[in-house]
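pasting Tetratricopeptide repeat protein for the record, 621 residues
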Amino acid sequence: MRWPGARAISPAPPRCSGSAGRRCTTSSSNMTCKPDRRWLAGLAAGCLAAAALVGPLSAAPADDAIAEALAALDRGDGVAAEVAGKRALEEGASRSQVAALIGAGEFLQGDLRDARQWLAGAGFDAATRKRGLHALARLELSEDNLPAAAEIFDRMIAMGEVDGEVWVDIGRMRYRAGQHRLALEAANEAVRIDPGEPRALEFYAQLTRDVQGLRAALSVFERALANAPEDGGLLAQYAATLGDAGEHARSLAAARELVELGGETPYAFYIQAILAARAGEDDLARRIWWRTDKTFDRTAAGLAVSGILEFRGGNYALAVAHFDALRRLQPFNESALLMLSRVLVANGEANVAASLLEPLVERSDASPYVLTLAARAHEQLGERGKAGVYLDRAAAPLPLAPSPHPAFLPRDDYGNLRDPSHPVMQLRILLADGERAAAERAVADFLERFPGSLDLQMLAGDVRALAGDEVAALERYRAAAELRSNWPVVQRMAAILIRQDRMAQARRMLAEHILQNPRDQEAIVMLARLHRAAGNPSRATLLLRQAAQFAGGERDPALLAELAEMELALGNQAEALVAASTAHDLSRSNRRVAQVLARAIELGGGKPASVQALSLKAQAR
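structre below
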C-alpha cells in the first residue's frame, strides 16, 4: 500500500567506487625543460598496468576503514562507526561512500543535528544507500516527522531496498500513526522476508500480545529465542511478558539470565523491581529500582512503579508527582486517573481528586471503587451528604455488565479538553454531548479515512451501542478485537452478549480472555458474577479468590464483600468472616459491607450485640 503523499524516486545510476588508493601527483613547476610526451605516455601505461596487477591483491586504506564502520554499526557502536567513517574520508573515500555510515553513527549516539547534516540531502553510493535511507527515516521518526519518514520508506520499497528490519520500523511507524491493521501487515511481511531477524520476531510477538494475548505471545517469544538465544531485546520482552502473565518464577529466571548476558542491564533490574513490588517486597523493589539508573523514570511503567512505591511508603506528595506525570503522558488512561485521585486524597488534596472523579461518578455504571473513592474525597471536604449518596450507590447491587456510556474525556489542569481536533477526541466530545447523529456521520467519515484504526473502530462500536444498534456495535468491536483484543474491547463485547441474554457465549469469551491474560482482575470478577448468576457458586468463589490475590484486590471492599457472600453460600464461615471483616475495616460506612459482615458474624455464632449494631448501621440511611 502506498503512503499518502509519498513519492517513489528512481535511484540514481550506480556510481563506480573503485579503490586503487590515493592518486599520486607530480609537480613540474620547477622544471626548466618540457618532458617528452612519448615518455609520459609510456610511464602512464606502466602505472596503469601496475595498478591493474596490484589492485586485486590489496585493499586501499579507505576500504578497511569503511569495513570497520560497517561492523561498528552492526554491533550498535555509533562512536566507532563515526570515527572509522571519518577516517575513511581522510583516506580518500568519497562523501557518498561514508555519509550513511557517519550519519548512522551520529544517530546512534543521539547527535541528531550532526546526523542530519550527513544524511539529509546527501547522495549515498549503491553499497550504503539502504543503510543511509533507513537511518534518515529513523531520524525523522525520532523527531516525530512521520510524513517525511513515510516518504523515505516508500522510496525504499520502490527501490527494493527493504528487509525485515526496515519492515519493523515501517510497522512501528504505522502503529504510532494509528494504522493498526497496516502495522500488522508490516509485522507479517518482516517475518516472511527475514524469519530469523530478532527485531522482526520481537515486533511480531509484541503485536501477537496485543491481538491474541499474553500466552500466545509467550510461544512466539520462545520460538524467537530458539533462533536467537543471546538476543537481549528478545529476552527482556520475554521476561516482561512472563511477569505480566503471572509466571513470576520464570520471569525472574529470565531477568537474571539477561543480567548474565549483558552485565548491569537496566531492563533486567526493571523487571525484578516490578516482581518484587507485586510480591509486596517494597524495600527490595526500591533497592532494585535504583539500579535501573533512572532509565525508565519517565516511561509510563516507570512512573507507575515509582508512584506505587512512594504511596506505600507514605510519601504521598512524591506519589502525586509521579501519577500526575503518568496522567499527562497517557491522558486517556482511566487507571492512571484513578491512581492519581487515590494519592491526592491521601495527600489531603480532596478538592482536586473530586474534580477529576466527577465525570466518572456521573456514569450510571460507576464502579463501587470509584464511588467509594469519590465519597472519601467529599468526606474530606466536609460534604457528608454528597459522600453519603456515593456510598449508597456503591452499596447497591452490581450489574452483570456495564451499560453503554459516553467515553472518558481527558482534560488539562485548566479544565480544557486535550487535543480537541484529534478524530478520536472529536467523537468522544460528540458522544459526551449526546450528539449521536453527528457522531454517526463523523465516525463514517473517519473510518473511510482511517479504516485500520483500533481507536476509531472502538468508538464506532460505542456510537452504534448508544444508538441501540447492538448488532452493528458488536461487529465494530469484533473488528477492533482483530487489531487488539484487550479488556476494553472484550468488556464491551461481553456486555452486549449479556444484554442479549447470550450468557454462555459471554462466559466463554471471558474465559478465553482470562486464559490469555490471567492477571486481568476486572475480567475475572465479571466472569465470577456470571457464574454466580448461573448458579455456580463454587466456580464464582474460586474466581473471586483469585481476583482478591492480585495487587489492590486485598484492599477493595466491594470485591471482598462479594467474596464473603460467596464463601457464605458455600458454608465457608471462617473464610467469609475474614473477607467481610477486612472489607469493613476498609469501608466502615458502606451499608452493603456492614450487611455482609453482620450475616457472617451471625452464621458464625458471633455475639448478637455485634450483629445488631452492624444491622443498625446498614439501615442508617
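Confidence is low (pLDDT under 50) at residues 1-58.
The radius of gyration is 32 Å.
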